[in-house]
Amino acid sequence: MSRFDVADFPRRVTINAELQDEIGWRGWFETESGRILLDQVKSIYYRRPTSFIFPDDVVGGDLTFAAAEARRGFGGLLFSLPTRWVNHPASVADAEFKPAQLHAAASCGLTTPRTLLTSDPDQARLFCQTVEKGIVYKPLSAANIVTDDEVRLVFTSRISAADFDDADLSLTMNLFQEWIPKHYDARVTVIGQRFFGAAIHAASSDAYIDWRTDYDSLSYEPLNVPVRVRNSIAAYMKRFKLLYGAFDFAVTDDHWYFLECNANGQFGWLEAEAGLSITAAMADLLAGSTI
Q1: What pLDDT, on a 0 to 100 scale, did the predictor assign at position 208?
Q2: What is the pTM of this model?
Q3: Which of 28, 76, 121, 138 is the most buried (most CB within 10 A)?
């Protein structure tokens, strides 16, 4: 097994590949930990690579050109290998759009909260007034707002019509969703055809709305995933061509409400907290075990 970041190219990783007709690409990656032969690559675990880093004297148009060539050459070479991706970057890209996630989840049989996408302040107020349980605002992206002196994260938040700012709302797309009074949150980590469920219990009011705001208040326990939910998740995974997914649900007496799926989400902390054998399952998948 080898691990490297694409940022290591071209400073610490050298690539040599030759196309041999129908055989495909033959050659290697030369890394600081050794040589990786292209024809021996069986699986690739794709997890948030960073940008290529070039020498300081490569600037301006030269830098733009070098980065584009590296992306298309490095990425194109990896994409052409007959290997198992967890997950393929194209699949991750397709699956990251929340409107597409919600539509796919609903069409695969998962229960979803009432949801509005809008840039119209009047429609946002109307939605807020007609949803009996109240609504929340959710960012559509990772929502890291970077300024000169700080990085601010935008979390899910309860909101009322009095909170709306017309100028801000009309500036971009906004996602509003029915608030679900839940018993607990559930994270379902899926690796191939193996499901690892964990209940997430929040002991603070902020974490009850969005558990990412207060990890210290959380407690975890293993959780059985209902067969109906498992079947719908499997259909969702097939829809987006995923072998790995981290699914979030709000669980009530009657329903598991699908919130989102991160096709590149973390699982290390959850494995330790809930006592789940997720890493072993990932190793089995990458080693070529039956999906």
Answers
A1: 96
A2: 0.91
A3: 138
